[in-house]
């Protein structure tokens, strides 16, 4: 069910490779963490069903992994979630409860939603989820042993910290920088690093829906301070340009979050770099708008 995704050179960019997690069965790396977490539940826990809070990609991973075990998956989704992701969740048999963004964020903090039972699979905080995400680092080290830095979209931190912890387990973290990539409309980790504590920001909703929360969860901030080597913030227009660039040069469809590391390349150190293209679940209407604007 989980693919070993290809690591391909980025055309026109010296010493840059793309880790194409958008090619996973659900179009996102989230299948790794979701499957690992659900696999490690006891049979009795799984029998009660599983629950997650997700804007779409983690929800799809949880729904697919639950379907494999024949158990129910309940998804608490923000009412801002894109249509393409909600439709994919429904196709996989997930039961969707749509709530306002702030109520959805509280579900992440509480690890529960009133009236819903089942094992809660946290999309970022669970150690098993991060362990599943960390398999990306193992594949990168096998395919590009002398990698020097990895640019990772920062959503909640489960991907960045999972990759960094896997590098440490392989004895490679001392020589491989892990850089968290954010978009200027919502960059809570950069603000939290500046403040020295997990802090909230004024979030501006945009097409970049897979990353850009209103704050950093306290546990993830503590992990980020130990494992993440810095942040880069990309302007929204440059993320949009990166979506177009990947389609035109690499023939790869990336969602906003997945294109953000490419948008951050200009600000990154000139090292042998892997960009994690975390997902490709972008609404077709948004993609058509981007392609149209390229010819205006």
Annotation keywords:
Rossmann fold, 296 residues, 2 domains, four-stranded parallel sheet
Description of the molecule:
The chain is of the alpha/beta class and 296 residues long. It folds into 2 domains: 190 residues, Rossmann fold; 91 residues, Rossmann fold (3-Layer(aba) Sandwich), CATH 3.40.50.1100. It has 12 helices and 10 strands. The strands form 2 sheets. The chain has a 6-stranded mixed sheet, sandwiched between helices. It has a 4-stranded parallel sheet with strand order 5-4-3-6, with helices on both faces. Helix 7 packs across helix 9. The longest helix has 17 residues. The termini are far apart.
Number of helices: 12
H and E order: EEHHEHEHEHEHEHEHHEHHEH
CATH architecture of the largest domain: 3-Layer(aba) Sandwich
Number of separate strands: 10
Q: Give the CA-based shape.
A: globular
* Mean pLDDT across all amino acids: 93
Unreliable stretches covering 5 or more consecutive residues: none
Helical residues, percent: 40-55%
Reading side by side through the largest sheet, how are the strands ordered? 1-2-10-7-8-9
* Beta-strand residue fraction: 15-25%
Radius of gyration, whole Å = 18 Å
Number of domains: 2
Q: Main β-sheet: number of strands, strand sense, barrel status?
A: 6 strands, mixed
Fold blueprint:
Elements: E1 7-9, E2 16-20, H1 30-39, H2 43-47, E3 50-53, H3 57-69, E4 73-78, H4 83-91, E5 95-99, H5 101-110, E6 119-120, H6 127-143, E7 149-153, H7 158-169, E8 177-183, H8 188-195, H9 218-227, E9 230-234, H10 236-250, H11 256-263, E10 273-277, H12 284-294
Parallel strand pairs: 2-10, 3-4, 3-6, 4-5, 7-8, 7-10, 8-9
Antiparallel strand pairs: 1-2
